[in-house]
Amino acid sequence: MLLNSFDDFSPLKEVVLGSAGDYIERIRDMSFDMFISDNLSGARGYYPSISDWYTGEGRRERNEPHRLALKERFLHELVEDVEGMAEQLEKLSVRVLRPMALDPACAEMTSPAWSAPVTPPLNLRDNTLILGDEIIETPPTLRARYFETQFLKPVFMEYFRQGARWTTMPRPMMTDASFDPANVENAAPNIEVPLNPRPSPYDVGVEIMIDGANCLRLGRDLIVNISNANHALACDWLERHLEGRFRVHRMHKLTQSHIDSVVVPLRPGTLLIRSEGVLDFLPEPLRRWDTIVSPVPEVGDYPQYENGDPIPPSPYIDLNVLSVDENTVMVNDACKTLIRTLEEHRFTVVPVRHRHRRLFGGGFHCFTLDTVRSGGDEDYLS
Question: Is the pLDDT of residue 179 over 50?
């Protein structure tokens, strides 16, 4: 099919689903801490703060690369759950495409300024933004995911052959000096201030960095969450690139990065939100939409891990649902209260298993890149 995706709720025809194979480890470095700082400074009982993970000398040295091995059993179960999602999508008559597999021999990558393990292409929503008939590869915010879109090349090439536009935003050097906030006044309150950033001969100052999951797509409108100077520069680029085709709206400091576990458009006129306070950040027309406020997660809603295994993603990760159409929503089968809430609002819920979403990060929206939906460049905000 021809590439066509303007929103997250019109009937889904074709989607790329990530792969969890050979997810061996993740690395703690400055890019990781800056990326998930919202959760590291969050509510006790749901997830650890940065001081829970690193105290004293460990906190001062947290910018040193620190590898976190992932248990084999959890990896097998993650793969099972992702493949179960593929089966369910196909049952719903959605064509499922997959990225290339990660060769275990390609375990490490090195740039002039840093090195990192290669992360498999699981959370595809982050490094690509689909706008209508255009593929936009976004500049990565995590070093370990720098080349992640390379695994999508066969998929992107096929859409390109069929007439799709294909653009890559500027790639950052990603030295320590690349990351805002050097000036914390520009940043969301929950952004971690970089500790002990080290100079590099490749420093170019604060750079363009943003994830596709910072953006909410509504027909001809694109709402971009801006939490730091990296995001602001990226929004400058998007405004210039999309001028005349899309209207770009800046949403300031809603959260540290991704918004798809904070505000989720389920259909025209209806939003799923984390709390009523989210509305204060949205463009005025969206504040008039009907809202479904998420039930507050409980600690017992999630698997508990021994030996202090870090679980950085937000407890609201299960708001990361995938709409198959304006009435049908794919939801984690463990979220009984959320399922009941959506059903009370007359949505058809498709429950799918996803056990270790907080250990690995990412929900159903994160794992997918919807490339063909039946919607167009409608005006939802006038």
Answer: yes
Within a domain: residue 380?
A: no
Neighbours of 268 (CB within 10 A): 15
Q: Which two tokens stand for residue 97?
A: 């495409």
In the beta sheet, which residues pair with residue 130? 135
User: What range defines the domain where residue 363 resides?
Assistant: 12-373
Amino acid symbol at 84: G
Residue 140: the pLDDT is 93
pLDDT of 219: 98
Residue 203 lies in a domain: yes
In a domain, 3, yes or no: no
Q: What is the pLDDT of residue 257?
A: 83
In a domain, 382, yes or no: no
pTM greater than 0.85: yes
Pairs from 269-272 (Cβ < 8 Å, separation ≥ 24) = 270/345, 272/319, 272/321, 272/342
At 267, which CATH number? Answer: 3.75.10.10
- 344: region left, alpha or beta (phi > 0 left; psi from -120 to 50 alpha): alpha
Which pLDDT score is estimated for 185?
62
User: What's the total number of domains in the chain?
Assistant: 1
Looking at the predicted structure, is the pLDDT value of residue 165 above 90? yes
Q: What value does the mean pLDDT of the chain take?
A: 85
- Buried b vs exposed e over 47-79: b needs ≥16 C-beta within 10 Å? bbebeebbeeeeeeebbeeeeeebeeebbebbb
Q: What is the dihedral of CA 290, 232, 259, 219, to 10 degrees?
A: 50
Phi-psi region of 296 (alpha: psi -120 to 50; beta: other; left: phi over 0): beta
For residue 81, pLDDT over 50 is answered with yes
